[in-house]
Amino acid sequence: MNEYKKFSTKIKKGIEEFVKIDSSAKIPENIFIASFSYISENAEIGENCQIYPNVFIGKNVKIGKNCIIYSGVNIYDDCIVGD
User: Fold this and answer.
1) What is the pTM of this model?
2) How far from chain centre, in Å, is Cα 22?
3) What is the C-alpha to C-alpha distance for residues 40 and 37, in angstroms, rounded to an integer?
4) Any alpha helices (H) in the chain, and if so which ranges?
């Protein structure tokens, strides 16, 4: 059980290939965004967030610090997640 916990809490960093981020989005340096994710206009992502593959983040979305957004999630325009 301990070995599983160590593995599952590993924090990834960086932005993988095939990610589309609008130029107006606010993205911190210490973040992970996996392939095939889309970050729309004026979206704000908090520090230490983990965004897994195939995620859509709509216009004006605000995601707080330390959030995990799992694969296939759609967060539509003007939503606030976390903080």
Assistant:
1) 0.86
2) 14
3) 10
4) 2-8
> What is the 3 state secondary structure string of the chain?
CHHHHHHHCCCCCEECCCCEECCCCECCCCCEECCCCEECCCCEECCCCEECCCCEECCCCEECCCCEECCCCEECCCCEECC
In DSSP terms, 20 is beta-bridged to 38
pLDDT by residue, tens only, the chain of 83 residues = 555 555 556 778 999 999 999 999 999 999 999 999 999 999 999 999 999 999 999 999 999 999 999 999 999 999 999 98
Residues whose CB falls within 8 Å of the CB of residue 5, separated by 6 or more in sequence, listed in order: none
Asked if residues 30 and 12 have their Cβ atoms less than 8 Å apart, the reply is no
